[in-house]
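Appendix B. Chain record.
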Amino acid sequence: MLRAEPSDALASQILLRGGATIHALLEASRRPAWSWFEALLGYDNPRISQALIEAGVLCRRPEWTAAGLETLEWIASQQTSARGQFRAIGSESFGKAYTAMPFDQQPLEAWAAVDAAVCAYNATRDSKWNDYATMAYRWYFGANDRGIQLAEMKSGRCFDGLTPRGVNENSGAESILAFQLAHHAIEGLGGEIRPGLNPGGETGRLDAHTAAHSGH
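Structure tokens predicted for this chain:
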């Protein structure tokens, strides 16, 4: 709303209140080696950092933007494996304080990492965020802990998650949309998918008509 109508008082008030709340959570919860907003890591984690970066930029609060970038760097470190691949915070982490478990990994988490990294890149123009967005996107195509491709470019489909035993072969709407919106965000970084981005060779654009009907 503020991008379309910068003078909108209500939108500005909501964003100021939200940014202040998130920033206060961070200041109350951070501890050595834990730069996060609470003691638990849950679902869609990078969105909190993304919200604080966006609020800082739009409200001209550089301390919020800096805190958002700091926490995004921290969560990115938690979601990068020793092999330099994206490792989504797993659902086994839910409810366990100061813990990051590797499974089950969800497509929504990779999309959140892509979107948050694109947000950070737009705010800083630092190419490391471009690289991190690309790393998170490659997770869909086998650059992950199991070396399994979850998404298919031609149909736009995506499996529901990565487990210790392999892939969850269900393909629900949330997973399909997460992949397609992550793809859209990556395209926005440079207009085209980078050559070699997909190890399977399926570079290019999604077939929107096929993808829209792939989840039936």
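Further analysis of this model is presented in Appendix C.
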